[in-house]
Amino acid sequence: MDHGPTSQNDRDYPLPIVVSHVQIAPLLQAHKAGAATALCSPDLGLSMVTVELTAQGVRFPNDELLCWDDAAAIADEENKCWTLRDGEIDDIAFFSEQTHWMRTLFPTLSAPTMLVSGITMHRIKGVNPLEDTLRKIKTIAPLRGRVLDTATGLGYTAIEAAKTATEVVTIELDPAGLEVARLNPWSRALFTDPKIKQVVGDAYAEVPTFADRSFARIIHDPPMFSMAGELYSGAFYKQLYRVLKPNGRLFHYIGDLESASNRSLVPGIIRRLKEAGFKRVTRHNEAFGVVAEP
Fold first, then answer.
1. Which residue, 35, 51, 205, 251, could crosslink 30 as a Cys pair with Cβ 3.0–4.6 Å?
2. Angle between helices 234-243 and 266-275 (to 10 degrees)
3. What pLDDT score does 6 carry?
4. Which CA distances in Å does 207 have to 143, 181, 201, 240?
């Protein structure tokens, strides 16, 4: 297992142009209307550039050309993001030999989320992935000292936590997930912020290796129960309790607490957290989780 921080090569790695139907569909309309230029984001909405709408396709300022056939293919696919390099497009999707999960970068009108075997890893109905992340973090604010993020995903939690924490340790089970994140412009700080330490491994095995009382805050945002039941177990909660400082706080994402599937799951989670040593467990419906305190 790799326990080291992101390498300098990762920090220097240039991102390709990354687009989705959100960016490309308006260009097709502009070209059809006879426009010679248009505004387009080359990084899923983070910035805007002026592109040329030529007979051959969309020409970006760095001279990359997206041909019209490829532009049409991107516009027709609403569930994927695409890279453009050397005139070739490629969807951002990786099959994991380790977990046998397909991971795909899924576009929204804001930051993208990740699809894991067809399940979105962030809330996208009535809230965007960044707002979803901020709601989780707000429940245990302020984030100071060392923070543990048990499931990296696209790194949004680690990135936000690192803005105020002294260090963020983030664990990712699946290297394929990091490959998706590496191509996501919104995840860039995951690979450039020196305060973020990445650990590649199973959180169930990694957390027991950490020292007692070594984290001031923990954000536990595991996959759904059916995909990672061990991360909802009493044994794992005991390890989270052990590594949390006496005045620390843990946020545990569960999903909609009032949904039919979770309504029966939540009482067991609260009971096991208390059995692990947490004295106070409070529901936070707006963040789809609970906060546990020693």
1. 35
2. 50
3. 36
4. 19, 22, 10, 7
pLDDT (0 to 100) of residue 4: 33
Mean pLDDT of 30-58: 98
In this prediction, residue 13 carries a pLDDT of 53
Mean pLDDT within 194-199:
98
Q: With contact defined as beta carbons under 8 Å apart, do 219 and 29 qualify?
A: no
Which neighbouring-strand residues pair with 220?
252
The pLDDT assigned to 28 comes to 98
Is the domain covering 123-293 a CATH 3.40.190.150 domain?
no
49-53: strand order across its sheet: 37-40, 49-53, 57-59, 65-67
Determine how β-strand 119-120 pairs with β-strand 280-284.
unpaired
Paired tokens of 265: 């799951």
The residues spanned by each domain of the chain are: 17-89, 123-293
Q: Residue 142, preceding bond cis, omega within 30 degrees? A: yes
